[in-house]
Amino acid sequence: MAQGSSGIRGARVGSGPLGEPERGDLAPRTAVSFWCGKGHHTQLSFAIEAEVPPTWDCPRCGLPAGRDRDDVPVAEGHAPYMTHMGYVRQRRTQEEGEILLNEALAKLRGNI
Predict the structure, then answer these.
(1) How far is the C-alpha of 36 from the C-alpha of 57, rounded, in Å?
(2) Helix (H, G, I), strand (E, B) or coil at 102
(3) Burial of 63: CB neighbours in 10 Å, binned 0-12, 13-18, 19+
(4) Which pLDDT score is estimated for 42?
(5) In the 8-state DSSP scheme, what is residue 43?
(6) Beta strand 29-36 pairing with 41-47
(7) Measured between alpha carbons, how far is residue 100 from residues 22, 83, 87, 97 in Å?
(8) What is the pLDDT of residue 27?
(9) Does residue 94 or residue 13 have the better pLDDT?
């Protein structure tokens, strides 16, 4: 049994020829390099008319990357992990905490 072959095998119907004449010319571009704090180098292509941002997120580690290799931007600090007690101490003074603790102990002992 012979199988028929199609002239558009492996291509989408109506896709037409590929290439620059079909899509038009690209805008003139410039290559811009960015470096992060871990030394990763990223080179991006921007249109000449486009405003190049001062920083870019590194695609490898996520740190901010700048255009100057010797003066890379510093990542914004994040608050360290705090326990429940750390948050309580932010809201209460030591004296208030002792009063609350004594009230809770009195309830547990059945004095109130």
Answers:
(1) 8
(2) helix
(3) middle
(4) 95
(5) E
(6) antiparallel
(7) 76, 19, 15, 5
(8) 84
(9) 94
pLDDT tens digits for range 48-100: 999 999 999 999 988 999 999 999 998 887 777 889 888 888 898 999 989 98
Dig out the tokens for 75 from the structure. 């990542």
CB 74 within 8 A of CB 37: yes
Query: Tokens 């486009």 appear where?
Result: 50
**Does the pLDDT value for residue 12 go beyond 90?**
no
Please answer whether residues 45 and 31 qualify as being in contact, where contact means their C-beta atoms are separated by less than 8 angstroms. yes
Compute the distance between CA of residue 68 and CA of residue 28 in angstroms, rounded to an integer: 23
The SS3 assignment for 105 reads helix
Tokens of 35: 């470096």
Instruction: Name the pairing type of β-strands 55-57 and 41-47.
Output: unpaired
Q: From CA 111, how far away is CA 107, in angstroms rounded?
A: 6
> Given a cut of 60, is residue 6 above it in pLDDT?
no
